[in-house]
Amino acid sequence: MRTRIYILCILCIALLSPALQAQQKNRAVSRSTNEIFILRGSVLDTETMKPVNKVNVEVTGGAYTKTGRDGEFRIEAKVGDELVVKSEDFETVYYTVKDKQRIRVEVRPLEEAIALEQMQDVEEELVSYKTYLNEAQSVYRRDAAAGVDQVAKALAIEGLSSQERAESFKLLGDIYSFWKQYDLAITNYKLSIKNTPSTAVEIALAKAYYNNKSYQESIRLYKRLESKKLTPQQLVTVKEGLGDAYVATGDYVTSITNYEAVERTVSELNKVSEAARVRTKIGDAYDQQGAQQEAASNYNKAAQLSSLEKTESSVRAKTNIADYYSRNKSYDAEIELRKSAIEDLSVVAPDSISNDDVITTQKQNYKIGFALAAQNKYDESITFLNKSIEEAKRKEDLTVETNARRRLSEIYRDKGDIDKFKEAYEAYKEVVDLSYNRKEQEISQATRFAKDITEQQNRIISLEKDRQLNESRYQLAFQEQELVKARDTRQKVIIGSLILVTALLMLTAFAMYRSSKKQQYANNVLALKSLRSQMNPHFIFNALNSVNSFIATNDERTANRYLSDFSILMRAVLENSEEDFIPLSCEIDLIKRYTMLEHFRFKNRFDYEIEVDEELDVDAFMIPPMLLQPYVENAVWHGMRYKEEKGKLQITFAQKNEETAVITVSDDGVGRKRSKELKTENQKKQKSKGMGNIKKRIAILNEMYGDRISVAVSDIFENGEGTQVQLFIKKA
User: Fold this and answer.
1) Strand order in the sheet with 647-655
2) CATH number of the structural domain spanning residue 184
3) pLDDT at position 519, please?
């Protein structure tokens, strides 16, 4: 035992709310205190929270168990029982069972105990997985518990691959099969296959099903294996297993079909002893079916084949054939085969056959003695029965010794040798008593063995379930993480797509906006060109009317002079006709020349004055060409033309501020209202092109270049006479 000293720290159940505690207490009182249940618990190191192994746990006067490698224990108990948790490594702990809730014991080791445990943990880590499995392989045939414990240690190593776990569970299945714990073998073979599928393990599982009398499961698995790609030896095993299972279910015809297929295969492989064994099984199937002739034929063939080789398989074939001869009272043939089997057995496997095997030497000698006695050859029978007894005593086979001594006493009785009969009978009774006592011990040992093996297996299953649960949690966490990543990726893709679509829409909208602006700009340019093209004919029309008036009055000199000045003006107008803006200085020159022409025509109607502020930088301001002409023309033609006395036209160019210039066109004519009244009917029908065009030009230019031009028209005098037009021009 390891030297460890533990100090009891806490033995508690998770604290519950007061209301819940009261409710549970009331329920506990209402239950029968004699109800037995399985109490579950664990013993843990309080510092590392590692499980403490091999701790004794018992109920006073009741059940007993111990903790496993996982520190867990399960024990039968009832409310009010005293639970004792003890070990040489720490002080004994006493606990009164209060309810069915799981309990936990936490212990604190001393420093030297911790150091020792850490050293042992390091040593255990150095022990490889293969070392544990090799140790299990070497010990399990003589000590099942030790073999299972070594496999459990191997499975407790963290980070085992699926293949390694499968190998470990397969070995567990082999151990349980050897010790005839077939239900446990089935469980472990299934776990092995679950970790890593294997045809060899599936075949072992099918055998375990058969040995556990689960014949239908065995047949189903064997038939499923038939459809797989098998080696010749695996196919032989599967077909023979099917034959055995069908015999067990009474389907002899199908079993014989499978046996014959096996016999053909092993014969082709030149495996004589196996062919003899299979022939024996075919004979058994015919015999159980009641077909004696076919049974005898196959037994004879098996006998011939078994005589060709000396192997364990041929020995089994001989003993099976001998059993058939015994059933049919062919005692000489039986005796001959059994003697041959004993001779062969001494060569192929003298000491490796267990007592419960049917081919042991003591069993064969007993059956020879039985056959001789059936022929009334008592002396020879006694010789072989004594051989059987001696061999059984040497191998401690009380079953055969009991049967042989009983049969020996009966022979002495039949011979009439009363003294030897009494002596043999007394020896028989002693062996029976010894056998009975040993049977009780074996039953007790078998019970303890089954209990220990089951507990070990339960711990292994619990560890495997915990591992699978942890793996499931890891898989769920991993899957959740992957789902989160996928969701984030989808969200990023969606957001990116939305951003891209939004960007495309914005680009499209911007492109459409720019296209619209360009189109609008083009339309404005076209409109300006159209308006400018309309301004020039309008102006020309009015000028030509003036020339026409000169010609009508036979004033050719004046007409020529007017045309000369008009051509100069027209050249300047045409030069600027394609420009949206020209310097204010150019516009001043144009308006001076135009005003001069109008005054030349109507010199008796008005005088004019054009003033330019000296502080005004006429080259810094830009103005649309011929912008002032319509206003000047309007002042002359509609203001002062209808005035009886001579009027006055004044045009001023001044600077309002650093950024704005003011152009004022004022006249002292009849005014806008009076002018409308004085228009003839024909003039009223005609629409004023000049003023309408100028308003459109200003609106378009302001839209294209910003609000750079504004116009204000007002009356000068309170009686409505006189008109003033102010144009505000801003720098570009």
Assistant:
1) 606-612, 647-655, 660-667, 723-730, 709-715
2) 1.25.40.10
3) 63
Q: Which domain holds residue 677?
A: 526-730
Please compute the mean of the pLDDT values over residues 147-155 and round it to a whole number. Answer: 87
610 and 714 inside one domain: yes
CB 691 within 8 A of CB 634: yes
Q: Sheet holding 56-59: strands in order across?
A: 64-66, 56-59, 82-87, 90-96, 6-12, 103-109, 37-45, 72-77
**Residue 169, both tokens:** 């569970």
Locus of tokens 């072989």: 384
Contact of 251 with 243, CB cutoff 8 Å: no
Q: Residue type at 323? A: D
Query: Average pLDDT for residues 273-294, to the nearest whole number?
Result: 86
Query: Among 246-260, 331-345, 566-580, whose mean pLDDT is lowest?
Result: 566-580
CA-CA distance, 535 to 696, in Å (whole number)?
Answer: 12
Indicate if 168 and 101 belong to the same structural domain.
no
Residues 40 and 143 in one domain: no
CA angle, 95 then 99 then 101, to 5°: 90
Residue 78 has pLDDT above 80, yes or no: yes
DSSP symbols for 592-653 = HHHHHHHHHHSTTTEEEEEEE-TT--TTT-EE-TTSSHHHHHHIIIIIITT-SS-EEEEEEE
pLDDT tens digits for range 207-218: 999 999 999 999
Give phi and psi for 607, each to the nearest 5.
Answer: -115, 160
Given 209, 234, 261, which residue is the final one in a domain? 209
